[in-house]
Amino acid sequence: MKQDNDGDSNATHSHTVYVKFSASDKTEFTMTCKQPCTVLELLKSSGKYNHMWSDENIVIQFGKTARKHIIATHFPCTCIHDGIRLTVSCKKQKVEEAQGQHEEPILSRDSYSVFYIETVGGKNTKTKKLFKNNDVKDFTYLCVYGEKGMTVKEAVERDGRFIDELGDFTLSHNEKSDRDTECSQPVDDLNRRAFKLCLPLKRGVCDRKLQENRGESNTSKPKVKTPQRNPGASNTPKEKWNTVTTSAVVHQRGISVRTAMTKPDGTVDLEEIYEELRKQCRGLKEWMKSRFPDDSYQEKLNLKKKDFGKIQQSFSEVHRVREILKLGESVCKVLVKIVESLKTFTGTGFVLFDNYILTNAHLFDNCFEGQTLKQGVNVSVHFNYEIHESFTNVHVFNVVDYHMCNIKDDLDYAVLELNPEGKTLIENKETRKIKVPPGLLKKVGPIPQNGEACIIGHPGGEVKQMDPICIIEKENRGQAVAENLHPYRDTLLTIQSIHHLIKKQGIDQIMMGGKRAEDVATYNTYMYHGSSGSPVFDADCKVFGLHTRGYVYGFPKEESVIEFAQPLLTILKHFVDVLKKSGDENMLKLLKRVEEEIKGNSDPKKIFEAVGIKVEPDVPEEILDSSESMKID
Question: Lower Cβ count inside 10 Å, N or C end of the chain?
Answer without folding.
Answer: C
